[in-house]
Structure formats: structure tokens, C-alpha cells
Amino acid sequence: MRIELQRRSEVSRLFSLVSPLLALVLTLFFGGIMFWTLGKNPFDALYSFFIEPLLEVWSLHELAIKAAPLILIGVGLSICYRSNNWNIGAEGQFTIGAITGSILPVLYPEWHSPMILPLMLVMGMIGGALYAGIPALLKTRFNTNEILTSLMLVYIAQLYLDWLVRGPWRDPQGYNFPQTKAFVPEAVLPEVLDSGRAHLAIVFAIVVAVAIWFMMRFMLKGFEVTVLGQSERAGRFAGFSARRMVWFSMLLSGALAGLAGISEVSGSIGHVQPSISPGYGFTAIIVAFLGRLNPLGIIASGFVLALTYLGGEAAQLSIGISDKVSRVFQGLLLFFVLSCDTLIHYRLRLVRHPAPGGAHA
Amino acid sequence: MTVSEGSAAIPLLSVRKLTKHFGSFAACSGIDLDIAPGEIHALLGENGAGKSTFVKMLFGILDPTEGDILWNGERVAIRSPGTARTLGIGMVFQHFSLFEALTVAENIALSLDPKIPLAKIAEEASTLSKAYGLPLDPKAHVADLSVGERQRIEIVRALLQNPKLIILDEPTSVLTPQEADKLFETLFQLRAEGRSVLYISHRLEEVQRICDGATVLRHGRVTGRCDPKRETAASLARMMVGSEVAAVSRDTSAALGDVRIEVAGLNADARTPFAISLRDINLKVRAGEVLAIAGVAGNGQGELFDALSGEYPVTSNEAISIRGRPVGRLGINARRLLGAGFVPEERHGHAAVSALPLSDNLLLARSRSDRKAFLGGGALGVIRHNAVRAATRRICEAMDVRKSGEDPVAGALSGGNLQKFIVGRELDRQPAVLVVNQPTWGVDAGAASRIRQALVDLARAGSAVVVISQDLDEIFEVATNIAVISEGRLSASYPAGEMSRERIGLLMGGVHDSTQPGAVHAH
Amino acid sequence: MLEAILLTVITAATPLVIAALGELVTERAGVLNLGVEGMMIMGAVMAFGATQVTGSPYVGILAGIAAGAVFSLLFGILTLTLVANQVATGLALTILGLGLSGQIGESFVGQPGIKLQPLPIPFLSDIPLLGPLLFRQDLIFYLSVVLVVGIHWFLFRSRTGLKVRAIGDNHASAHALGINVIRARYFAVMFGGACAGLAGAQLSLVYTPQWVENMTAGRGWIALALVVFASWRPLRVLAGGYLFGAVTIGQLHAQALGIGIPSQFLSALPYVATIVVLIIISHNRRTTLINTPASLGKPFVPER
């Protein structure tokens, strides 16, 4: 018996919607089994992992804080992946964006001006974009594989940040802690509501996602992204340039990752330290795929993945399992999303081999 | 089974009610066919009639849905090409099943018993290839070989297994007429040795010339069985197509206008290790003229199209001019704005994106040239989907594109209907210059006739048309002038009335190959 | 001193060589598995765990190999049977591997490990310099040498290896000739996984005999770059692996000497070197095109 795939003549609209949900259900199922093998009641565990964080106002704020960078980065990555540019170094672009965005508040800690925050955000975006420009340059100029270069640049960015906060940027009054001076209030991203910590980043994320959705749905630029991603040759026939698309998609996603980076540092942390991200740049890859590379879908999937972070923290406190479980959940989710996506393009059939008769090789 | 009773000679191969379904689509239904030992049997049918599906079942690549295959009167199940080879069936594929990165000997070794050492295979292959007049160097890499040489590898590979039946799928579509003649001699030699040949083709003359019996397929069913030598080309065509196909009508008396596209001293280096360099190409096409460029596949047709379309601009701006304007360094959209239209060879992934709807595929070719009609919102470039869909409807009506639904994805259309759309997409603009590469490759006869007529009509209405084609029938149907491309060089162009198949054949094979007897040197 | 440095270079290079060799076979069959990092870390954690439980690092080696192979099977099912995107699935494998290994290895953190002991080869190990370097090594090093030679022979001398190369060059043709493309690719993927697992076992049993979360530190990705660097040839993987080993060890020694360059910059050297090497090797488009297996990363759905 074997599984046989049969290509659908038209993409299944039903499964385009159902497949991410199916993936979620499968992830919960296998997650439950995992909790069970760890000796926990799977229902209690899943409850404290996925429901509890939604029941309190403060944790909803935390959810928005965690979803914002995931959505910002995920939307940028969706443009890369749709156009067949495999930027997997968003974590590095996030880090560099956080660094370049922090130059003003760290080096000019006495500067109190309403101008500082917009400047920080712009500098963060430029930093992230330039850092993503490195793999773009290497790909267009030297034909170098962007997957490997963008990933290598993540390690380099993290080491650079580590050096900065332990070296030149360290707060001299900071009791030798490897971190910078706290940002002045003017350099801190303001909160959205009075009820909690959630800051402007989530607003940026949703505005950006809607804008990119509009571009992909209604603008020639979006059409260009789709065509070049489907077939570079057809794109060339249309007069589109794959080379320019490398730059466009990489710079855009780098800028968004940079924006996420500086927003996180300015809004959530308030200073620069060696560790500024629980792997947002990598988790955003999952966000992009779970959202089916559609910016509106990515808003939803950003919140789902943010929940796995919060759930991990909550489950650690309430039922005493490691927060590493979140990473497992995230990995499982991406696996199931990718498998369920097969159903969009193919019909699956279980085929029994015809009874063996005659020669068989 | 009825085969064993009565008749003195049991057929080598009998096929009974062979059927293959892909989902709900019946590619072959209830096909019966017999091949006697020492017979060259033709399987005739147009593109999409089910010939390839049928032979893939004989060779064990596809599993039949229903029906029986009898080999020497015994029922067999051919589950893999290995089984087929063990029985004594050899196959020469239309789109070769070769590996470019491997040597000739390695390619052959892949279908033989793994115990035979490579050195022995190389030796046997070169002996055998000499015996059948198919010279081959076993150490050569396939990537460096011509299409004709590649076919030789396939034939030698099949012969090395000492087969009783050899299946050839459209073998002459990639050969010059002279190369085809040599192939026929090899086939006669095989017949003389008592081997059988199943010869798949849609070319009537060669079937009449070499085959002893024929089975005709249409839409997956047998529509006729005959001795092709007793039929006329017209009666065979009727069995194949089912109805009379409208002959392309044209009017050769029309006067030619000004030069619309001119190429002078065009050179372009090969972009990849597997591509052809273009060398000193010259051509001139006037309004009202159809210049057909003949040539065997892989002689630089794609590269010439790329240079003419501007998908890959060339280094010299003066080398190409459209309506008197030098355009060599301009891109495809700048050339479109000058009134040129282009139809590439590959439908899926070049002329069209399979996963996108027809309306998007219209925008693909015309987002720049029809910017005013299709885009709004200034710099934002917002697509006017309604206008694009209306134009899509207009084109589908004009070209009789049959489709299911209002705006299906390109991949859901049959080859012929998609090609009609792709050609119609350009005709809709009334282009001053149209460059088409292989306009009817893999297209059914009805669509092919319609497309050819459209090209002729376009020229008659005062446009210049360049048709690059491997199909000599097509060339004679549409051309006012004919040139031949070979190894990246283009011959001078001659009036169609002065050209014969033989002369084209010589130009195809020989222009720059001085070892060929009778080569024409046209420098 | 020289001997000690060369020994550490070999120890640093061995996991890179092994993981890259496995990936090389996978890619020669036309499959791009970007999950090397994930399979490697699974191999590392399972090898460490099995060694702690049984007390035998040899059981650990087997566990590492098995973990890598089983984990790669997940990749195989997704990309070969369900035709999921190979790039995305490889990333998924890495993300899942890093998460799962962290979860599994949580209780191992801080435990002292058991180091795999060298197996000196009689007589040969007494040769000055070469003896201690090449013949007083552990089993995994010997395996890496056998793998280099064996895979070279397999790919370029054996008929099965010819089939693998054929599948990587043109899977449609291979299918038409009756080669079972999917089955062969499953084997190639699992071989790649087993090698990555073995490489991971070397990390947690030889290189640093302990369990540290994320201890592969990008080595799986460097192995992927090595395959490109080696233009898909096993002997060049050996050369490239040792080059990277030398860079890694060189920067460690430089850090120890305290030559005034911040340690973070030195730590970044292997990653910078990877980028530089990729630039050098990729900039000639023609040679890259000739060397890359033509069907690498492309999905294949056989029709029956």
C-alpha cells in the first residue's frame, strides 16, 4: 500500500483555509501526547499552555508585545519567500536593527527631544535593511547562496552585539552588568493603552501587514513578486528583473526586521543587553508559513506563535515543565503546516498495489 | 484469448482493451493492437491522442487501469522498465531519458545488468554503434553532444539489450531529413534481423514510407487500422484528426512594405555551458512578410528568440533594430512599446505562469505596453482587474479558447487552448512585428491550423512576422521566406517557393560541417 | 605544541567532514536537506544520553546515528512523499531539532560526560608525529576517513553510485529508465541523517564531552557550505573540512594568547570564513552550474 498524489487542476480554496487549522489541531494532539509522556495530564497542560494566558488583561498585553515582532518580521519574510529569496537571517537583521536604532539613546544619553524616537526607528530600519543587503549583494553580484550567508550573518550580528554591550557600550555605572544605560523616556516607545505594557510596535505590525497585503493583492509590484517567485523566466518575459527583486525583498524584509528589533529594545526592554530576542527571527519563519505567506494570515499566525512563547512561560510556572516545550511546539507546528499544505495542491489517495501477478521488479 | 487459435503466426505483441485513466480523464480507452515479428508498425495520432501514455504502459512506466498485454501469446504484467527490458522491449524516448552530466557509457550502463563492467559496456557500445552506422564516443559527456547524437545513444542503449521489439516515440522530430533517412536504414536493418518496431509518429509521409501496418489513435481510442502504403495522406489525416482540418489559406501576391525588424551582424555568447552562441546573424523582415526560420532543436533557436525579444539584451545596440530604431540593448518592454510582440516556445513557466489565472497571464505580457488601460493609481500601480478581465474575455472569444469557468489558471487549459490564448494575447495588440518560437509545438491539429492562419493573416494585414519552427510542414504552410539556423548561425533567406525539404535539410545539417558530403557553404 | 594544535584541528574538523559527506550524498541524489543542524544536534543529545545511561560511548555513537537517521526520515516523508518545499522543511527540521534536543537534554545539563577513548593502531601509532595524529585516534575519526574514501568509491566507481548521480542529474529520465527515484532518495536522505547524527555524537562524546544546549553552534550550516565549497566531491570535503577546523582552532588559540582582538571578533571568524569561501566558490556561475546536481531541490511526483 502506498500514498499516491494526484495534482489538482485548481488550487483547493477549501484546503487553503483548512490546512493551517488542521496543522494546529495536529500540533495540539501531538503536544498532548508529549505532555502525557512527561507524566502530566494533557488537558491540564494544554489548558495552562494555550488558554490561561488569554484570560488576563496583562497577559493579553504580553501577547501583543510578543506578536508584534513576529508579525513585522513574518510579513517581510513572506515577500522574500513568495519571490523565492530565502532570507533566513532575520534574527541577525533584527539584532543589527536594534543596534543601529540604539545608537542615539546610547551615545547621546542626555539628548531629550521628541525627534529621537522617529530617528531611532528610521535608523533601525536602515540598519536592518543594510544588513540584509549583504546577502542580497552577494547573491546578485557573486551568485552566493543567500540561505547560508544570511544565516552566517546571524551569528556574526549576535557576537557583535555581545562585544558592544560588554565593551564600548557598557554602562559604566551598571555594576559591570553587560548592558547599556537605560534609554531616556523620550527614546521609549509609548504604550498603546493604559491597561498594560503593550506598546506601539503592535500598531506598526498591523499597519505594515495591511499595507503589504494591499500591495500583494492590488498592485503591480505585488504581481511582480508573485510572478518572479513562480517562474523567473516568465518574470523576465514580463520585463521584471529577478535581480532587482532580490534587492527589493531583502531590503524590505531587513527593514521590517530592523524595525522589530529597535521596537523591541525601545519598547519592551528599555536598554541594550546581550540577549534581546527569544529567537523571533527564526520563529517568524514559522509565522510566515502558518499564515500561508499572506499578510493578513500572518497577523493571525503571529498571535498563535506568540501564544506558544507565553504558554511556555505559563506552563513552567503552573505545572513545572520546561519552557523549552515552546520550541518543540513551534517546530511541530511548522512540520504539520508544511505537510497539510500538500492537500492544497494534491489529492491524496491510498493505493493498494494490484495483486502481484507476472514479473515484478 | 483468440490470438493463439487459427493464425499461423502468433503476434509478438498483442494488446487487448488497454485503458488508462488519470483521475476522471481517460488518456487511453480500450486500445487493441497487434505487432507481428519483423513488422514495422506505426502508431499514428496527433498530439494528445494518447500515444505516449500507451507506450509508457508497454514499457512499464505507467500501470494500466484495465486491459491485457500479451507477449508471444502469453499474458504479462509489465510493472517496470526492468520487466519490459527482460521481456525484450526496448524504448527510444521522444524527450530523451539521458543524463547530461554523465558520459555516454555511463548512460548506457544505467539500463544494463549492473554486473557488466563499464569498460565492457563502452567497448560493446562502440562496436554495435559502428555495425548500425551510428558512430558514438563512449567517453563523451552527453552535455556536449548534438540532438542527433543523443538519439543515437538511446538507440544503441536499446539495441544493446538485444530487444525483439523497439519502440520509437516521434524519433524524427529532432532530426534533419538526411538524418531521418539514415535512421530509416537502421530500422530496415532491424526488420531484416526479424525484430519488430513500434513507430510512433504524426508525420504521414514517413509512416507511408517505412511502415508495414498502422494503428490510428484519436482522443485515446483506436479510430483506424490500415496498411499505410495503400492509403493516401488525406485518408490517414482524416482518421487521425477526425474531420478535415482547414488548410491555411494565403495570398502570396501582396506587395511587401518597409523593413520592420532587422538584425545585422548579431553575436551573443552562450550564457550557460549548455547553450549555443549566436554568430553573425543577419536577417531583414518587411511588413507583409512571414520569415520562417527552420532548424533542428538545440541549434540556437531559443537563444535567437531571447536576443530578438530583449529578454537577454545583446552588447551591440545597432545589431537589432525594430521599425528603424536600434534596440539591441533595450529590454523586452521597450521593444513592446515599439510595437513588437513575442511568443516564446515554452508555454508553462515562460509564456505563462501555470498557477495564475488567464487574466494575470494577460497582464504578464502587457503590463507595460497597456499601462494606461490596465493600471491606475499613479505611482502605486494599482491593477484594474476589471479591465484586464474584459480584455481576457475578448481574446478568448477572438481565438476560440475553450476553458472551464470564467478565469481558470493557465495550467488547467489544454496545450492547444493555452497556446491560442498566448498567441491571441499578442494579436490583440495588432503588433507591427511578431516573433514566435515553435508556434504549434505539442498543439492539436485544429488549434495549430487556427494559429497558423492567424499568423498569415497578421502578415497580410501589414505586420512583419518571424516564425522559428522545427516543423517543416508548418514552415511551408506559413512562410513567404525561409532561412535555416544551424549551430548558432543563420543562412541567408530564400523565397519559400524556391526551397525544398532536401535543400532545407542540407542547410540544417551541413552549413558549417564540412565533413558532411554535399554541404552547402553559404558564407 | 604543533602536535597538540594539529590534534585539535583534526577533532574540530571531523564532525564537519562527516556531516558534509552525508549531505553530499543527499544532494547528489537531488535532495537539498537544510536540516543538518537539527539532525546533528539530535545526534549529539541522543549520543550523550545513551552514553550516560549505558556508560558506553559506543552505544552512544549508535544512538547518535540512529537519531539522525530517524529524524531525517521525517524530512523524507514530508519532501519525498508529500512533496513539501525542501527549503522550508529543512528549516523546520532544524527548528524542531534545536527545540526537541533542548527539551530532551534538560536533565543532562552540567553532567560530566564520558569521553570516547582513542584506539591506537599497533605499530603505526608509533610513527613520530603522524602516528599520534592519524593512528592514535578515536573510532569516529577512523570512520570519517573510511567515509571519505568509501563515498568517493561508491559515487564514482559503483553502479549504485552511478544511479544516485543519475537521479540527481535528471529524476524524470531516471524514472523512465525504471530506477525507483523516491526509494533511492529516501536512502540518500537517511544516509545524510545518519552522518549528521554521527557528527553530532562526535561533538558530545569527543570534541566537548558534555551536553550544552545549541552546542552545534552553526556547524550544520557550515557543513552545508562545505558541500558547495567541495563542488559535490568527497575528497574536496576533506580538504575544506580541515581548512575550517584550522580556522576554528586558530581563533581559539588566538583568544587564549590574548592578542588584543576582542574574543567575539575571533569567534566570528569561522562564520566570516564560510561567507568568504562561498563567495570565492560561487562567483564563477559556469562552474557552479556544471557542478550542481541539476535536479537539486526540485520536487518529483512519479506518475503511475
UniProtKB/TrEMBL annotation, chain A:
Its main location: membrane. CDD domains: TM_PBP1_transp_TpRbsC_like. It comes from Pseudorhizobium endolithicum. It is a multi-pass membrane protein. Keywords: Cell membrane, Membrane, Transmembrane, Transmembrane helix. This is ABC transporter permease. The keyword S-adenosyl-L-methionine does not apply. It comes from the Bacteria. The keyword Chloroplast does not apply. Coiled coil: none annotated. It is found in: Cell membrane. The chain crosses the membrane at residues 12-38, 58-80, 92-109, 115-138, 147-165, 198-216, 245-262, 282-307.
From TrEMBL, chain B:
GO terms for molecular function: ATP binding. SUPFAM superfamilies: P-loop containing nucleoside triphosphate hydrolases. Keywords: ATP-binding, Nucleotide-binding. It holds the Pfam family ABC_tran. PROSITE patterns: ABC_TRANSPORTER_1 (PS00211), ABC_TRANSPORTER_2 (PS50893). Residues 13-244, 261-512 form the ABC transporter domain. InterPro entries: AAA+_ATPase, ABC_carbohydrate_import_ATPase, ABC_transporter-like_ATP-bd, ABC_transporter-like_CS, P-loop_NTPase. CDD domains: ABC_Carb_Monos_I (cd03216), ABC_Carb_Monos_II (cd03215). PANTHER family: CARBOHYDRATE TRANSPORT ATP-BINDING PROTEIN MG119-RELATED (PTHR43790), GUANOSINE IMPORT ATP-BINDING PROTEIN NUPO (PTHR43790:SF4). Belongs to the ABC transporter superfamily. This is ABC transporter ATP-binding protein.
TrEMBL record, chain C:
Keywords: Cell membrane, Membrane, Transmembrane, Transmembrane helix. This is ABC transporter permease. Pfam families: BPD_transp_2. The chain crosses the membrane at residues 29-49, 61-84, 139-156, 186-208, 220-244, 256-281. PANTHER family: ABC TRANSPORTER PERMEASE PROTEIN, SUGAR ABC TRANSPORTER INTEGRAL MEMBRANE PROTEIN-RELATED. It is found in: Cell membrane. CDD domains: TM_PBP1_transp_TpRbsC_like. It is a multi-pass membrane protein. InterPro entries: ABC_transp_permease.
